[in-house]
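#help-structures
NK: newbie question, is this the right format to request a structure? protein is Prepilin peptidase dependent protein C-like C-terminal domain-containing protein
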Amino acid sequence: MGRRNSLSMAHAQRGFSLLETLAAALLFAVSLAGLLQYHQVLQQSWQHLRLQRQAWRLAHQYLEVYEAGGADARMQAPDGWTVTQAETRVSAGCRKITIAVATPYHYQARLGRWFCETPPVAAPETETPPQ
């Protein structure tokens, strides 16, 4: 009976066959390749989002510099980026400034702001109370 028991235990501990191991390795490799591709797409999306936010921020900064009186001041744009400025006279004393910032991947952020010159307001004359 001892011999029969040892034979059945040896039979029970055979392990995986070569075909099962290869199938598991193939499944693992395909899963890993899918995860790596997903990670790459996710990284590209984050990069695209970061560049979009940077473009909007840069366009806003250009408008702030223009409003502060630096109409001809040129801010430094990152390499590969293009910044264009357009001025449109809308009415007497009003103009619209449009800043367009294009990223190296051709995403474009366009911001516009109206600047109107207000005429000086005369201070009302104050009457002196009778004495």
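mod (FA): yep, format's fine, and the tokens are attached above. The first strand starts at residue 82 and ends at 91.
NK: thank you!
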